[in-house]
Design brief:
By secondary structure, the chain is mostly helical. It is about 80% helix and about 0% strand. The protein has helices at about 5-35, 40-60, 70-80, 85-105, 110-130, 140-145, 145-165, 175-190. Helix 1 packs antiparallel against helix 2, helix 1 packs across helix 8 (about 175-190) and helix 4 (about 85-105) runs antiparallel to helix 5. The longest helix is centred in the first third of the chain and has 29 residues, at about 5-35. About 20% of the residues are buried.
Length: about 190
């Protein structure tokens, strides 16, 4: 099922802020490992984060979204189906996501497919949290999800540095790309 457009915009905008929050320390540690300090890159990341937060505030102004637990209570309250039937439909959806993950796992040959795999993995994880503890089923695929998340953070950090280098070709942080790439390779190997 597709998200309502307003929620999709909010999730994307908050994802940008989160990406930048993760990228800053990751890039900073890669710079430190290379013995580099780059104030221009720091400023670039600060400005990008400020703009992303401003955009998120503009989008969410006046939007009232209940918390996850509240949304589930509301869903149960509005459902004419008994709780067990509702849980069964969540289980069925989780099983469908598991099958999709298995199908995707055979073609993880580029960052976009790996990202799609990771998103499905997160959806499965969220679906499992809805179910009572005794009904939750974890798979080996889900256990690699955290490593894939860290892998994705390296990929997005590299793209951010490349964007920065395009605007600032004189910057000395180009070596950081190699360090992030090596970390990315290790994380991918560990996740798979």
């Amino acid at each position: 099922a597709e998200l309502p457009p307003e929620l999709d915009r909010i999730f994307r905008a908050s994802g940008r802020v989160r990406d930048l929050d993760v990228q800053r320390p990751l890039i900073r540690s890669a710079l430190d490992a290379q013995g580099l300090v780059d104030e221009e890159l720091e400023d670039f990341l600060r400005v990008r984060r400020r703009k992303a937060r401003k955009r998120l505030r503009r989008i969410t102004r006046g939007v009232d979204i209940p918390g996850f637990a509240g949304a589930m209570k509301d869903l149960r309250r509005r459902s004419n189906r008994p709780k067990e039937e509702l849980y069964q439909s969540v289980r069925d959806l989780a099983d469908k996501r598991r099958l999709e993950l298995l199908a995707l796992s055979g073609v993880l040959d580029d960052p976009e497919r790996i990202h799609a795999f990771r998103i499905r993995l997160k959806e499965l994880s969220y679906l499992n949290r809805v179910l009572p503890a005794e009904a939750q089923r974890r798979t080996n695929l889900e256990e690699g999800g955290e490593l894939l998340g860290q892998w994705h953070d390296c990929v997005t950090s590299q793209k951010t540095i490349q964007r920065f280098l395009k605007k600032n070709p004189q910057a000395r942080c180009g070596r950081v790309l190699g360090a992030l790439s090596a970390r990315q390779d290790k994380l991918f190997a560990a996740a798979m």
